[in-house]
Amino acid sequence: MTVTASTDLRACVGIDRPGIRAEGVTKRYGRTVVVDDVHLDLPLGGVTALIGPNGAGKSTLLSIVGRLLAADGGRVTVAGLDVATSRSDELAKAMAVLRQENHLDIRLTVRELVTFGRYPHSKGRPTGDDLVHVEKALEYLDLTGLADRFLDQLSGGQRQRAFVAMVLCQDTDVVLLDEPLNNLDLRHAVAMMGRLRDAARELGRTIVVVVHDINVASCYADTIVAMRDGRVAACGSPAQIMQPDLLEDIYGLPVRVHEIDDQLIATYYG
Amino acid sequence: MTVTSHPTRTTPPAALVGGVVGLLVLAAASTMVGVADLSWEVLWVSRLPRTVALVLAGAALAVCGLLMQLLVRNRFVEPSTVGTTEAAGLGLVVITLLAPGAPLMAKMGTAALFALAGTWLFLRVVRLMPVRETILVPLIGLMLGGVIAAVTTFLAFHRDLLQTLNSWMTGDFSGILIGRYELLWLVAGLVVVAFLAADRFTVAGMGETFSTNAGLDHRAVVAVGLTIVSVVSAVVVVTVGVIPFLGLVVPNVVSTLVGDNARRGLPWVAVLGSGLVLACDIVGRLVRYPYEIPVGTVMGVLGAAFFLVLLLRSAPRAS
């Protein structure tokens, strides 16, 4: 059965008390419209995966929701707070955001970096409670042994884990991560997605990730939002989105979907 | 789960205590060097003020170097490599021409305003650059500083102020007497502010995205930080003259030792900054005893060599 995009879209608008709500969000660079009138409600709690081809507007949308980028039109609310008008330090206690490219010019140790995740709460004077959060986040991402190393002495994957640890340490209800699996090997990628799913299920966090691998989205997300050309092309549960026709339509190449060990796995290689 | 202790956060590490002791020894030595026979009067009127001025100016300039490096996010910037110092000098010449009898505070204020404008101009130019190559940033700054210095020299030359200008542009503590250095205590106050806001500066040093995520107003922190840098530069130029490269050498050494977390690094930067200026001043007083070589000259030679090493060492990393 093929689910058409239009029916799917209804799954993601008009939710009662959404964790994140985007209303008519638009972003242009010159004449190019990168995000085109996006209306989207994401439920409170759970993992949402943003998928789609390059240039679909995923990262731009995530940056707008995370108030790292101002929209040209529309409105975004996170946990009821308008991201364009609310105080940034209040938002920092409700939402944490990590971009895809993270380059630090300054030398910090892993523990120092993660401790800065507590900045919105501690304003630079970490209490014992903050330090407990820091150690927990380090342990959570398998970084305890690397805690006193400088970031410039780590591999790309280790650094990526340190950045995610920092963002999780911020202890916010909403967490936005752009390509958190960048540079991670299989074991750490699987561990990271497992941790994110646990945080969503056990702690009720609302986690939004941009991922490239649709099978990661299929196996770990509660909701998948598929974007194409700056618009939401489809939105729904993995079972609703993991449809050959729909995926082919989004990515522009033939995709087969198989059920393997109760998981929906897409294959698309020649 | 156990929480490991963080000695750097609660108590200063033993090494830092050692650094402070070393600084005190240097300071004591500094009061002992000189042509005049040591008497209580000489000590009180000349030697002690000179040593205090060295300690304050050294700490403040080094701290300013670190602030600027965090806020501009470039390892090679400090007030004397981006035009801030030169702009302060221009301000001094302008106020001297317009109001020769202006009180010291008015001169300092004008110099600070010019320093701020110079720093702002530098940031504008850097933002306009199509490529933000790490090494290009200080080169632009040095060129900008060169242009400002040329304008200053031109003005001074026409109005017969070259000698006065020269005394401002070369850091020299030999003229420090009681009653002629106290403005530097203002600088000490600004260093304390930098200590209190250390974490803000570190977060700002992580860049705009991280700052926004942490709920920090990046622009405001940059504005406050660069104002501190400008005022300190102006005060130091007015009271002792330019001490080039100090803000470059010290923070870079500290960065390799303890990293760039300002809360951890600032005490080191302040102590080593004071120590280095004290040492350079003592060297300058001994090399051609009983004559003096200005500290700015000693530091210029040392700092330029260090700057070169730093540029060469970073070249493979930057590519």
UniProtKB/TrEMBL annotation, chain A:
Gene3D superfamilies, alphabetically? Answer: P-loop containing nucleotide triphosphate hydrolases
Q: Where in the cell is it found?
A: Cell membrane
Q: Superkingdom of this entry's organism?
A: Bacteria
Q: Which PANTHER family match?
A: IRON(3+)-HYDROXAMATE IMPORT ATP-BINDING PROTEIN FHUC, PETROBACTIN IMPORT ATP-BINDING PROTEIN YCLP
Q: Which CDD domains match?
A: ABC_Iron-Siderophores_B12_Hemin (cd03214)
The record gives the membrane topology as: Peripheral membrane protein
Lineage runs: Bacteria, Bacillati, Actinomycetota, Actinomycetes, Propionibacteriales
Q: Which Pfam families match?
A: ABC_tran
Which BP terms from GO are recorded? iron ion transport
Q: What is this protein called?
A: ABC transporter permease
GO molecular function, one example?
A: ATP binding
Cite a GO CC annotation. plasma membrane
Read off the SUPFAM superfamilies from this record: P-loop containing nucleoside triphosphate hydrolases
UniProtKB/TrEMBL annotation, chain B:
The UniProt keyword set, sorted, is: Cell membrane, Membrane, Transmembrane, Transmembrane helix, Transport
- Answer yes or no on keyword Transport: yes
The record, for Pfam families, names: FecCD
Where does it sit, as one GO cellular component term? plasma membrane
Spans traversing the lipid bilayer: 15-40, 52-72, 92-123, 135-157, 177-199, 220-246, 266-284, 291-312
Does the keyword Transmembrane feature in the UniProt annotation? yes
Task: Please indicate which superkingdom the organism of origin belongs to.
Answer: Bacteria
Q: In which compartments does the protein localize?
A: Cell membrane
Indicate how the chain sits in the lipid bilayer: Multi-pass membrane protein
Single Gene Ontology BP term? Answer: siderophore-iron import into cell
- Give the similarity note: Belongs to the binding-protein-dependent transport system permease family. FecCD subfamily.
Protein name (Swiss-Prot/TrEMBL): Iron ABC transporter permease
Record organism? Aeromicrobium flavum
